Amino acid sequence: MCGCRTSVPSMKQYSVSQPAPAATKKGPPAAAGMPKGVPIAKQLASIKALRKGSDLEKAFATAALVYNNHADPESKLSKSETKSLLQSQFWHFIQGQENKPKYQEIISSLDEESENKINFEDFMILLVSLTLMSDLLQEIKNVKTTK
């Protein structure tokens, strides 16, 4: 287990991964060694039950597809693969979080006991924990939903 099952106290801003890219960088780091194949959008479109699915259903299906595309045959990710996947696919949520204690705790857990692997449940808990810590979450909360 990656240690992400701990609750996130209040709505304090925390983070997860190695140092955030410099402000001059425009996007996430390259996904070196990440598998290439059928695009996620095409995979998602192939799931009949989701053709009329809600945005939330499609969002979770997308997370599951990303995980499955990177998981080993036992449906698990190594901790180093998990860290790399977060840095390439979840970059906007984790940037700027490196100095926050909870972020450092989560990233340290991915660096420890690297022979242990992450299952899908722990991966989703990790994503939710990182989202709750993210500075981006506050920006999302401030988006106007009415005219």
DSSP strand (E) fraction?
under 5%
Distance between the termini: 44 Å
Helix content: 40-55%
Shape, per Cα inertia axes: flat
The topology string of helices and strands comes to HHEHHHEHH
Oligomeric state as shown: single chain
User: If helices are DSSP runs of H or I spanning 4 or more residues, what is the number of helices?
Assistant: 7
- Secondary-structure-based class equals mainly alpha
Low-confidence stretches: 1-35
User: Rg to the nearest angstrom?
Assistant: 16 Å
Task: Compute the average pLDDT.
Answer: 77
Number of strands: 2
Which sequence of strands runs across the widest sheet?
1-2
The major sheet is characterized as: 2 strands, antiparallel
Keywords:
147 residues, mainly alpha, two-stranded antiparallel sheet, 7 helices, 47% helix
How does this model look, in words?
- The protein is mainly α and 147 residues long.
- Helix content is 47%, strand content 3%.
- The protein is built from seven helices and two strands; from the N terminus they run H-H-E-H-H-H-E-H-H.
- It has a two-stranded antiparallel ribbon with strand order 1-2.
- The N terminus is likely disordered.
Compose a concise summary of this entry.
The protein is mainly α. The protein has 7 helices and 2 strands; from the N terminus they run H-H-E-H-H-H-E-H-H.
Write the layout of secondary structure elements.
Layout: H1 40-45, H2 55-70, E1 77-78, H3 79-89, H4 91-94, H5 101-111, E2 117-118, H6 120-133, H7 135-141
Antiparallel strand pairs: 1-2
Helix pairs in contact: 3-5
